[in-house]
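Quick one, probably user error.
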């Protein structure tokens, strides 16, 4: 499942982290992959991208085109959550954005370059049967890293903060994604999603313009918008300051009502996604 949108701050990483942890706590075997050179997902799981993740220890090690490429299994790390493993990221992931156009342009690289979009899908193959769900946290742009995630994914979650500029930026993202997808399909890429959903993030009920934007988004995307929005909560942002999720902080650190409201919203969102996963597996 890819969590994508090229708007930074739309809540991709927060959503991906809480979803991956929720699923792991529920007993699924989960692999979270950090595709963002800024590596917030890694940091949230205790891997400081500058200190704890050395050269060739990110996803880049597994998807690079040269002979230093290594199996994905070698860059997978255990997290403190039983059942949740993570492939960390750091700034070296940027090299994939530079390498890919060179490989595409070079005559020698042949098929490897022409099928770059299948890169992630290919390297996931050997570990696929060790996991029930793979959560891909995309960078905030529609570059090659996001493309390989969109091609490897079988489900897509687009996070959207309900504000005018964010929604305009999302519509650009969707348009560009449509263009890119049709090119990739022509090149032989297979893109088939069991489901695509929009998740309203950082929503404030009391904010009139936001509520209008939510109404607008729902009128446009209908049932493709998750019924439950993720509410804006200081419990989430404060937990983030100490690189934690709501599942890690203690309830007594917060006003109980604040914590409970955030947890309730989170459970509702994650529950809805879990139901979509079950449906795609053919379970009710
Ligand atoms: N539901 C929420 N309530 C409060 N703050 C949030 C919420 N979701 C995300 N944030 C904060 O918003 C910022 C951006 O979120 P993030 O998930 O990193 O976005 P992205 O990955 O799309 O760039 C972070 O500081 C995060 O703590
Ligand atoms: Mg992010």
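Nope, works fine. Designed sequence:
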């Amino acid at each position: 499942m890819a969590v994508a949108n090229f708007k930074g701050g739309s809540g991709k990483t927060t959503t991906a982290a809480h979803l991956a942890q929720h699923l792991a706590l529920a007993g699924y075997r989960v692999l979270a992959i950090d595709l963002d050179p800024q590596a917030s997902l890694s940091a949230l799981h205790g891997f400081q991208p500058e200190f704890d993740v050395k050269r060739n220890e990110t996803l880049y090690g597994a998807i690079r085109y040269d002979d230093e490429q290594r199996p994905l299994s070698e860059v997978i790390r255990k997290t403190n959550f039983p059942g949740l493993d993570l492939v960390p990221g750091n700034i070296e992931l940027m090299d994939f954005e530079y390498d890919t156009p060179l490989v595409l342009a070079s005559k020698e690289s042949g098929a490897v370059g022409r099928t770059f979009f299948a890169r992630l899908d290919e390297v996931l193959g050997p570990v696929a049967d060790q996991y029930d769900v793979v959560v891909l946290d995309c960078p905030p742009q529609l570059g090659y890293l996001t493309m390989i995630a969109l091609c490897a994914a079988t489900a897509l979650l687009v996070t959207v903060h309900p504000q005018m500029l964010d929604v305009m930026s999302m519509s650009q993202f969707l348009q560009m994604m449509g263009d890119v997808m049709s090119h990739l399909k022509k090149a032989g890429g297979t893109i088939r999603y069991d489901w695509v959903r929009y998740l309203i993030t950082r929503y404030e009920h009391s904010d009139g313009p936001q509520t209008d934007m939510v109404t607008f988004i729902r009128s446009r995307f209908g049932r493709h918008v998750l019924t439950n929005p993720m509410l804006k909560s200081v419990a989430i942002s404060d937990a983030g300051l100490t690189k934690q999720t709501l599942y890690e902080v203690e309830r007594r650190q917060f006003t109980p009502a604040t914590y409970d409201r955030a947890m309730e919203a989170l459970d509702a969102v994650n529950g809805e996604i879990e139901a979509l996963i079950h449906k795609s597996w053919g379970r009710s």
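The CA atoms of residues 58 and 88 lie 5 Å apart.
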